Amino acid sequence: MSTPRIRRRRRRGGYTMIEVMMALGVLTAGAVGIMAMQAAATRGNLEARRMTTASQLAQRWVERLRRDAVQWRSGSPTVNPVLMNDTDYLRLTTAPGGSPSWFVPTPPATSGETANFDHYGRDLTAGATPHYCTNIRLAWLYPGRAIRADVRVWYLRRSTGTQADPTSSGRAALAGCAPGVDPNTLTGDFRIRAAHASTVLRYVPPPPTN
Question: Order of strands across the sheet with 132-142?
């Protein structure tokens, strides 16, 4: 009489190997999905941080150009280079009718400012590795009176290699704001990301003196 009861207890006393394997498979699939989602979220947050930093740096250079415009001594119905002699950047504005091009700004040595920035968005200091690179393009809107200023802060994408070169050598040519890189060849380059900002710089007459 007791034998059937013992058999029933044994059948109800635990899980079979198949049940355990199925449970582990479901748990593993869920864990892998969570880890993949966490990795994607981390990459997205990092890219968002880098783009935010680049946008802030572009705006910082817009403010530097506005400050430079204070040295625009007087207006003129024509472009008179003499009027721009006291400026650091506006004197490099492309002549009317010309094709404006990107260039790397060169701040005065005594200013403590640079065209390149480190990982944290600080002006590059000695020994620091550049992560963000600045280009400027200046063009006359109204000759002698108003200038359009475009600022581009670019940085390398995190993916390695390029479509033409699957190794990392393609990116190495641009790493660290490499000197000798023509800024005008970077437009549309899939190896980089960039933040842009634009402003109009106008000659503002000084207030009359009493």
Answer: 116-117, 132-142, 146-156, 192-202
- The string over 36-71, giving b where at least 16 C-beta atoms fall within 10 Å of a residue's C-beta and e elsewhere, is eeeeeeeeeeeeeebeebbeebbebbbebbeebbee
Q: Are 170 and 164 in contact (CB under 8 A)?
A: yes
In this structure, the dihedral spanned by the alpha carbons of residues 184, 185, 188 and 194, taken in order and rounded to 10 degrees, is: -60
**How crowded is the C-beta side of 12, counted as CA atoms within 13 Å?**
6
Distance, CA of 76 to CA of 88 (rounded, Å):
19
Structure tokens at 37: 């989602």
**What is the DSSP-derived secondary structure letter of residue 110?**
G
The tens digit of pLDDT for each residue in 112-156 reads 899 999 988 999 876 778 899 999 999 999 888 899 999 999 998
Query: pLDDT tens digits for 148-164?
Result: 999 999 998 876 444 44
C-alpha gyration radius of the chain: 30
* Residue with tokens 């650091």, as numbered in its chain: 88
The separation between the first and the last C-alpha atoms of the chain, rounded to the nearest angstrom, is: 121
CB atoms within 10 A of CB 205: 7
Instruction: Identify the bridge partners of residue 185 per DSSP, sorted by sequence position.
Output: none
Which whole-number Å values give the CA distances from 57 to 33, 40, 44, 152, 188, in the listed order?
Answer: 36, 26, 20, 9, 20
